[in-house]
Amino acid sequence: MGREIVLFKSEEKKSRGEAAAFLRELADKLEAGRIALRQAGEETVLEPSEMLELEVKAEEETKSKGVQLSLEVELVWYPGAQDKPGGVRLG
User: Fold this and answer.
1) Which of 5, 13, 81, 87 is deepest in the core (most CB within 10 A)?
2) In the predicted model, is pLDDT for residue 13 greater than 80?
3) What torsion, rounded to 10 degrees, do the Cα atoms 17, 19, 25, 31 define?
4) CA 10, 15, 17, 19: dihedral to nearest 10 degrees?
């Protein structure tokens, strides 16, 4: 059975424009093959494989404050793994 170690976690309020700018920068770093995450003087470096799994999930959840909507984007890879591309496209 596997175990999970959280290497980096961040949750902060941003404007829609700031979030979009972060995602653009993340996309550039993903394409380059090296993502450095920094927070409070700490740095975590990730080097995603050429082929990875892209998981996209949209959710609606009722909470005490009302309806909460979320969009989750997750990238998963196994270092050195070779898979074929395919799947979801933005429209």
Assistant:
1) 81
2) yes
3) -120
4) 10
